[in-house]
Amino acid sequence: MSQENVAVVQRFAAHWNETGEPLWAEMDPEVVFVIDPGSFVGGTYSGHDGVRTLLLLTAEVFDEFQLELDELIDAGDAVLALGRIRARGAKSGATGMQQGALLFRFNKGRIVLYRSYLRREEALEAVGLRE
Predict the structure, then answer these.
(1) In this structure, how many other beta carbons lie within 10 angstroms of the beta carbon of residue 106?
(2) Domains of the chain
(3) How far is the C-alpha of 117 from the C-alpha of 125, rounded, in Å?
(4) Which has more pLDDT, 127 or 108?
């Protein structure tokens, strides 16, 4: 099942970059998004409605938001995606890039947790790995 999870993360990132939306069909209705507290929209967003709230908050800050994934680590019921986020400020037009990681946890083939990390080391520790 874990290679299937890796494929879901690849589709998730591609869909996000094309549409600005998560891959709703691959997410459990009770999915939880935990955004690193150091992020502009840091916090916990529960269920599809919570994710929609996150999308609205993100759109207030950024008019462009792209996931660039360099490495996907299969961790059984989880996939750790290492890379960066590129964004453009909605008001300022300034562009920026933030290194980090995304942790996707799965249950029965569906995403149940999306967790962003600004520090790669924290993400690796979350799946029992160290650099």
Answers:
(1) 21
(2) 2-120 (3.10.450.50)
(3) 11
(4) 108
